[in-house]
Design goal:
Radius of gyration: 19 Å
Distance between the termini: 50 Å
Number of strands: 9
CATH topology of the largest domain: 2-enoyl-CoA Hydratase, Chain A, domain 1
Helix content: 40-55%
CATH superfamily of the largest domain: 2-enoyl-CoA Hydratase, Chain A, domain 1
Number of helices: 10
Length: 267
């Protein structure tokens, strides 16, 4: 007898060059977020964080779509009655996506097809966003009189400003990948046929850099989002001191002087 649990809703792989890919694998449901998928996604996030082979972590969706939001069939009654499950999914999503945002390693979301509602929240919880020109991305919650509880109100305005954020959140407007790049929501977009090359080219510089310095820089930038100027100056000074006394900094300078490629230690 089946217990209702799906197999391989998350797939994890690491390429020889250090790009780790975490795949959402519910293509028959457009990679909707179920409680099971979210649990396994968080396990994959923790795994990638601890995996020495993984230098950059990329999140993608199988079946030519990224993620079309929460699987409402599993979360609410047919008449949208009370559902503690939907609240629990929002809290679990916020925790998982925050782990992605604060992971020591660079994270990249790659959007094909649709990234809407909960899928949009997932996409904007990474350090970088790459899009297929033809994709559709946006908050979308308001079209169903729902509200996104896992990131848009505190992440989206920091990316694109207050007015543009309201335009997306209060209208349910969807952007193409090309528009997302124009709005500076996405870092870059490309035709679907060229997306694989964009991923490789975008990630390539980070594969060669000090993982310790990238982590400290990312941590400082993230913490600086809500800090006042005085605190930011202190944070920058402290981070500079820690990084400049690291083993990687010493190796970086030594390699420059010796005209060779650095061998990063990671601390």
């Amino acid at each position: 007898m089946s217990d209702g649990k799906e197999k391989d809703v998350i797939q994890y792989e690491v390429a020889d060059n250090g790009i780790c890919t975490v795949w959402l694998n519910r293509p028959h449901k457009r990679n909707c977020v179920s409680p099971q998928l979210l649990r396994e996604l968080e396990i994959a996030v923790d795994r990638a964080a601890a995996d020495d082979r993984a230098k950059v972590v990329v999140f993608r969706g199988r079946g030519n779509t990224f993620c079309s939001g929460a699987d409402l069939d599993l979360l609410v009654t047919p008449v949208l009655g009370e559902s503690s499950d939907s609240l629990q999914l929002a809290m679990d999503s916020a925790r998982c996506y925050d782990k992605m945002f604060n992971m020591k390693k660079p994270t990249v979301a790659v959007v094909e097809g649709y990234a809407v509602a909960g899928g949009f929240e997932l996409a904007i919880s990474t350090d970088f966003l790459l899009c297929a020109d033809e994709c559709k991305i946006g908050d979308f919650h308001i079209r169903r009189a729902l509200f996104g509880g896992a990131g848009p109100i505190y992440r989206l305005p920091r990316y694109i400003g207050l007015r543009k954020s309201k335009e997306l959140m209060l209208t349910g407007k969807l952007l193409s990948g090309k528009q997302a790049a124009e709005w500076e929501l996405a870092n870059a977009s490309a035709p679907t046929a060229e997306l694989e090359r964009l991923i490789q080219d975008f990630c390539a510089p980070m594969l060669e850099l000090s993982p310790f310095c990238m982590w400290m820089t990312k941590k400082a930038v993230n913490r600086g989002l809500d800090a006042d100027t005085e605190s930011l100056i202190a944070l920058e000074t402290m981070t500079c001191n820690v990084v400049h006394h690291s083993a990687d900094a010493k190796e970086g300078v030594k390699a420059f002087l010796e005209k060779r490629k650095p061998n990063w230690i990671g601390r």
